Every structure is written in structure tokens, then in C-alpha cells.
Amino acid sequence: LEGLAAGQLVLHHQPKRDIRSGRICGVEALVRWRHPTRGFLPPDRFIPLAEETGHIRALTDWVLAQAIEHQAAMRLAHHELEMSVNISGRLLSDPDFGDVALRLAGQAEGRLCFEVTETAVIENPELALALIERFAGAGLHISIDDYGSGLSSLAYLKQIKANELKIDKAFVLNIADSQRDALLVRSTVDLAHSLGLKVTAEGVETDTGYAILAAMGCDVAQGYLIARPMPLKELLTFLQEDRRANSAVSAGWTPVAGVGRGA
Ligand code: C2E
Ligand code: CA
Question: Which residues keep their CB under 5 angstroms from ion ligand 2?
């Protein structure tokens, strides 16, 4: 992955809103490649390639180190937020990655969350579940990503030591128009809660969708309605403005669109 060597990777962040308090409670780190001739490449265009060519390890080490640096910068600006990082399934069967990740995580100044998919666990259950337990034992939060897409298995859902379940955006995008999707999301929220997991819905694009999720008892919302993924500098401005809007709401002023629901 020559983009890594050339310093062309950029880490963006997408905020997550706690539905009950209305406050931003965390961000998800999402990598981009600023290619000199091909422009801005989304991760779907190079992550699968990095996985196939064995570069995912170096990429993830970089992302993790960068995410920890950015979290420290947020803290300096008085935003103490959980930082979620996507961990490729392949790496869960690499104990050496586990060592390096734990060493890096030890330097974090706030809570880290590793997002893993169930499919990743299905590929090599013994190693993957053991590494996830090591992460959880070290105080890292674990999130089951893209839940509902691919092969979901209740057996693994039960075995993964997770704190959070993220409902795949495929079920959330049309929640206001599709009875079936709404039904699936509602039952997934209930299932997750009965397993003691917090639920994040990703792909929240509309006010109506947000209100439906709130009524279902969903805990956290992530999506374009709240904000698109953005570079650190923009994120710091966003967090500042969102905080100001939120305190305006609690003081009884008129809420700003897209901000402060549930406050
Ligand atoms: P993901 O983990 O499911 O991440 C969520 C994706 O949904 C992101 O796409 C985000 O921009 C997009 N999204 C967020 N809100 C909305 C919305 O309201 N509507 C719609 N239509 N989309 C929304 P992105 O950033 O292009 O990332 C795609 C995938 O690339 C991620 O899916 C993740 O699997 C992977 N990825 C990104 N960064 C990393 C990384 O550092 N390491 C690894 N292993 N994978 C990564
Ligand atoms: Ca994710």
C-alpha cells in the first residue's frame, strides 16, 4: 500500500450521538486515501486490497496510532469521547497484532472501542474469540459491526465479549418507509438489550428515522443526519458548536436543526 508509505492516508471521524442525553458520546475513525492522481479514495476501494495483499496490518497499526493521537487532541479541547476503530477480521487471528494493538492502546488517554464483525469470528473462532477476550480484559470496548449483513450467527453473538452492537445501515436507511426494516431493527434492539449490549444504529439520515429509533429504545445514532465523517480540525469545530447548541437547548432556547434531540 504505497499510500501509507507516501503519507497519503488521512483519518476522518464520524460523531455518534447518545439518543437519551442528546450529546455526542464518541466518534468512529474511518480512513481515506488522498491519491495524487486518482483523488480521494473511499476505504471500500482499498481496504479489501490491503487485506488481500497483507498490508492491512501496517494500515491498522497506523490508523490506531493516529486515532489515539486524535483522541488526545480532542481531550485537550475538553471533549472526552470514545474512539472506535475498525479491526479487520483477518487481524483477529494474528496474536502479534494483538500484542502491538494492546501496547498502543495502553497509551490512549481515553476509551477505545474495537469494531469487529461476526463474520471475522466465524473464519477462525478460537483465535478470534481469544483475542477479543484479551482486548476486553485490557479494558477495551468491543463492538459487533455491520450486524445483520452477512452471516450472523446467534451462537457467536452469545460468545463474543462485546459491549455494543451496531445495526447495519442497510436496515436503518429506510426505516421510515419499510415496515419490515423497522420490525427487524426493533427486534434487534430488543435482542441486543437482552444480551446486555448497547445499540448503535448507523446510517441515520432523517429526523423521522431518528425519532423512530428513539422510540424503539436505540441507544446511539450515527449517520449523515448528525454529521458525515470529517477531518480532525472540522470535527473539533463541530463538537464545539454542538456543545453550544446543546446547552442552548437545555437553557430553553430554540433547538438548532440536527442538534440536541432528546436533551
Ligand atoms: P463501516 O464500518 O460500516 O462504516 C460506516 C460507513 O457508512 C462509512 O463509510 C460511513 O461514511 C458510512 N455512513 C455513515 N453514515 C451514513 C449515512 O447516514 N448514510 C450512508 N449512506 N452512509 C453512511 P466509509 O467511511 O466509506 O467506510 C466504508 C467501510 O470501510 C467501513 O464500513 C469499514 O468497514 C471500512 N473501513 C474504514 N476505515 C477502516 C479502517 O481503518 N480499517 C478497516 N479495517 N476498515 C475500515
Ligand atoms: Ca464500523
Answer: 86, 115, 145
- Quick one: pLDDT at residue 148? 87
| 141 contacts 161 by C-beta, under 8 angstroms | no
Report the nearest atom of ligand 1 relative to the CA of 146.
3
For the Cβ of 14 lying below 6 angstroms from any atom of ligand 1, the answer is yes
Please tell me the distance from the alpha carbon of residue 259 to that of residue 240, in angstroms, as a whole number.
Answer: 12
- For residue 150, name the pLDDT band (cuts at 50, 70, 90): confident
For ligand 1, atom 19, the nearest C-alpha belongs to 203
**pTM beyond 0.90:** yes
| Cα-based torsion angle of the residue sequence 184, 190, 196, 197 in order, rounded to the nearest 10 degrees | 30
Residue type, 31: V
User: Which residues are CB-neighbours of 8 under 8 A, at least 6 positions away?
Assistant: 33, 34, 35, 36
Tens of pLDDT, residue by residue over 214-232, are 999 999 999 999 999 999 9
Q: Among 150, 212, 152, which Cα is nearest to 181's? A: 212
The alpha carbon of 105 is separated from its chain's Cα centroid by a whole number of angstroms, namely: 16
Q: Does the CB atom of residue 168 touch ligand 1 within 6 A? A: no
Report how far ligand 2's centroid is from the alpha carbon of 139 (Å).
19
Cβ 71 under 6 angstroms from ligand 1? no
